[in-house]
Amino acid sequence: MEKKQKITGQQRRLLFGAVFLMATSAIGPAFLTQTTVFTEQFLASFAFAILVSIIIDIGAQLNIWRVLTVSGKRGQDVANEVVPGLGHAVAFLIVLGGLAFNIGNVAGAGLGLNAMFGWDVRLGAALTGAFAIFVFLVKNGRAVMDIVTQVLGVLMIAITAYVMIQSDPPYGEAAAKMVLPDEPWTMFVPIVTIVGGTVGGYITFAGAHRLIEAKMTGVENLRFVSRAANYGILTTGIMRVLLFLAVLGVLAQGAVLSEENPPASVFQFALGDIGMRVFGVVLLAAALSSVIGSAYTSASFLRSMHTAFDKYNNIVIVIFILTSTLIFTFVGRPVTLLILAGAFNGLILPVTLGAILLAARRKSVVGEYRHPTWMIVLGVIAVIFTIFAGVMSLGGLADLWNG
Fold this sequence. Notes:
Keywords: Membrane, Transmembrane, Transmembrane helix. By secondary structure, the chain is mostly helical. It has one domain (9-402): Amino acid/polyamine transporter I (Up-down Bundle), CATH 1.20.1740. It is 80% helix and 0% strand. Helix 7 runs parallel beside helix 11. It is globular and about 60 Å long.
């Protein structure tokens, strides 16, 4: 039985910390580009894809967050209980994928500082890595992480909302197409892509692992956990809707988006000369928050593999950030690794979510807790969609091999 809880100030900080850690992990440079490109392709009908993806995201996240926090065990540990060794395999894929994506995140932060101040992209990436490392080395680093991700998340949403208002989108048309889109059968690719980008790989575990670390576990905290899970998805959804409407607005006014940097051209068209600098702020916030979220969550998948990873978790996080920053700064972004990581990202969620759905009714994992059937059904739908997403992402490997 889920009991009502009176949330203390510390719990409220933790609640929003978990929410924004998950949400800002999802809202990275790829999020900005994908939303812009799909809006340009499907126009107002993309609202339907956003709505469907939010429903699937909630199904995936509620299942994962509730089962993990009731059990008090991280994703890899639950997977190991379902199939021995599966959790270790998943942890390896998530850390490898997270490292590769973090190279893109620090690159995005460098591009953001370049747009704002004209700094060299590699210098900007190095400064971003240094700041992210500082967050985890400072005293009470977890509290600092919570605050930083919240500030960056609110900043991104506020700026994008302003751009949306300035672009004056056709709200009525977007609302109508949300339920009656043109050719809805063509929406499969954008739906599975943005689902994978919102709850794929390490992202959906970010907030749950943060709550487990803070000891917000057990049946008595389920209402709190469910609220955090839903808020996380809704926060990501709000950001996507705001960006979608901003893009739709400038397209309705006749804007032609740049092929090299579609989201930047939206900000330029809506805000004029200062638009590129404003976009730089959003890109920096998105990239920096994703660096923090990726590093924290990827390192959390190593904590149960050896006591050293748990004891020196902050050092592991610092090494993770330092490695991805140095790779970009001195080597550049390795295309092969990023494509492999994309394929892994699409495959990780159905494997891990599938294991958690199997564990949801196991007393050895969740005790006497009875996981709701409707959540399991939503979870199964999410598994089916993300299996297709993973298979489709493997096409990038073939293209790379043939190219």
